[in-house]
Every structure is written in structure tokens, then in C-alpha cells.
Amino acid sequence: MYKVNEVFETIQGEGSFTGAPAIFIRLQGCPVGCSWCDTKHTWEIKPELKQSLGDIVIKTAETEHWAAVTPADLLQLFVAKGYQAKHVVITGGEPCMFDLNPLCEALHNAGYSTQIETSGTFDIKAPAQTWVTVSPKVNMAGGYKVLQSALDRANEIKHPVAMQKHIDELLQLLQHTDTAAKLIYLQPISQQQRATELAIAMCKQHNWRLSVQVHKYIGIS
Ligand SMILES: C[S@@+](CC[C@H](N)C(=O)[O-])C[C@H]1O[C@@H](n2cnc3c(N)ncnc32)[C@H](O)[C@@H]1O
Ligand SMILES: Nc1nc2[nH]cc(C(=O)O)c2c(=O)[nH]1
Ligand code: SF4
Ligand SMILES: [Mg+2]
């Protein structure tokens, strides 16, 4: 069973799939504790806030409610909702607290491609064809460390930045990582102008790519 905070169909707003229609599955629970996290309502798993998947999917605001679901429940929901997207993004919370193999395999068997958004602080349990986006989290409140195995598995590394120390941290992580076949993105934190200017300058300097959170600029989820 997976603990799900929300399910919705939208446009991927980050990283290399930006612009692609996608179904998002947001899993509940994250102990990493990023001070600027934009999904703090997914951090805690409160037993008293358990709901049915039917209630979760009609949410109109961000809440801490969650539902326990199987891959089959999710596939059934996609059909019932009439979702047309063929790409599924599994995010959170920290999705890699779960074994994502059964979920991704069920999605692949039903004709969907899959992508995971992860902080790289937990073992990534997912099939080889799943696209893995690692957004490394260094020195956050929860005390978790980025795993080298997660950086090695990443298809893209999407680093959140607001100040020079974040660039230095990324350079440090990349020193030990073979980046030949990976896409490297800087993502300004919270659309701050100074963060965006820094990201643009550093992308030019290091030949990295820029990921702005497109969905926030156009006001969609
Ligand atoms: C909410 S996290 C969930 C997945 C996973 N826990 C992670 O951190 O990658 C999804 C993405 O949003 C990014 N993110 C979270 N808060 C942000 C913010 N305020 N500004 C920019 N990116 C943010 C994360 O770095 C990550 O790439
Ligand atoms: N549109 C849209 N794109 C996204 N890409 C990554 C997201 C996330 O929260 O993981 C996200 C999100 O929340 N919305
Ligand atoms: S790891 Fe992801 S979900 Fe967890 S606090 Fe950081 S940004 Fe938020
Ligand atoms: Mg988001």
C-alpha cells in the first residue's frame, strides 16, 4: 500500500520533461526537513487524517490528509477520471521511502512512462526504465545525507539554489559523480529574483540548464 496525499493531472513544470502532460502521484511522508519546502503538508503521516482515495482526489486545497492505496486503485482512478496523460510523476513528500517497483511496474504494464522526483536521501527502488530526478538535499534539518548511489542512478540532477553555497555544494557532489550521461539543472528556490539571477549566471558558467517552476508562473498545480 502506498500513502497518497494527492493525485492530479497537469503539465510537468520542472526539469527535462517540462511541458509534458503528466499525472502526479504525491506520496505522504518526508523526514528531510528543507526549510523552504513547498510541500510541507506532506511531511507528517497523521493516522487520524487517513481518508479514502475518493476523498483525496477531490481535494481543492493542500491538506495533510492521505489515503492508503494499491497500484490497481490508482490505475482504476486514472480511467475513472479520464486522464489522458501517459507520463506519471511520482513525487512527495519523499517517494523513495516506499519501494516504488510494484507501482512503476504496474504503470509500465498499463502503458505509462514513469518519473520519480526524489531528494536522493533514500535508496531508489524502481525499475531501470523509470526516469529518476534527484534534487540533492545537503545539510537540511532532518540530518539526512545524499546517497552516492542515488546520484549515480539519477537521469537528471536538479539542484535547488538560492545562494553561492548551494552552487559549491553541487560542485562538491558532482566531483564524485560521472555526469557524462546526466542532465544537470539549477532550480531557483521559490521564484526569488536573486536566486534566478544566480542560477542563470551559474548555468552559463558551468554549461548547466535552468529549471524554473513553470507551473507556479502560470498558476496551475
Ligand atoms: C517537493 S519535492 C518532493 C520530492 C522530493 N522530496 C525532493 O525533494 O525531490 C519536489 C521538487 O520540488 C523542489 N522544491 C521544493 N520546494 C521548492 C521551492 N520552494 N522552490 C523551488 N523548488 C522547490 C524540490 O527540490 C524537488 O525538486
Ligand atoms: N506542475 C508541476 N510540476 C512539478 N514538477 C515537480 C513537482 C513536484 O512537486 O514534485 C511539480 C508540481 O507540483 N507541479
Ligand atoms: S526533501 Fe523534498 S519533500 Fe522533503 S522537505 Fe525537502 S523538498 Fe520537501
Ligand atoms: Mg511541487
UniProtKB/TrEMBL annotation:
GO molecular function: 4 iron, 4 sulfur cluster binding; carbon-nitrogen lyase activity; magnesium ion binding; S-adenosyl-L-methionine binding
Pfam families recorded: Radical_SAM (PF04055)
One of the GO biological process terms: tRNA queuosine(34) biosynthetic process
Residues noted as binding substrate in the record, renumbered to the chain: 11-13, 26, 91
Required cofactor(s): [4Fe-4S] cluster; Mg(2+); S-adenosyl-L-methionine
Positions that bind [4Fe-4S] cluster: 30, 34, 37
Cofactor note: Binds 1 [4Fe-4S] cluster. The cluster is coordinated with 3 cysteines and an exchangeable S-adenosyl-L-methionine.
PROSITE patterns: RADICAL_SAM (PS51918)
Catalytic reaction list: 6-carboxy-5,6,7,8-tetrahydropterin + H(+) = 7-carboxy-7-carbaguanine + NH4(+)
Amino-acid positions noted as binding S-adenosyl-L-methionine in the UniProt annotation, renumbered to this chain: 36-38, 93, 135-137
Keywords from the UniProt entry: 4Fe-4S, Iron, Iron-sulfur, Lyase, Magnesium, Metal-binding, Queuosine biosynthesis, S-adenosyl-L-methionine
Binding site for Mg(2+): 39
Classification via InterPro entries: 7-CO-7-deazaguanine_synth-like, Aldolase_TIM, rSAM, rSAM_QueE_proteobac, rSAM_sf
EC number: 4.3.99.3
Chain's role: Catalyzes the complex heterocyclic radical-mediated conversion of 6-carboxy-5,6,7,8-tetrahydropterin (CPH4) to 7-carboxy-7-deazaguanine (CDG), a step common to the biosynthetic pathways of all 7-deazapurine-containing compounds.
Family membership noted in the UniProt record: Belongs to the radical SAM superfamily. 7-carboxy-7-deazaguanine synthase family.
Protein name: 7-carboxy-7-deazaguanine synthase
The species this protein was found in: Rheinheimera nanhaiensis E407-8
Gene assigned in the entry: ygcF
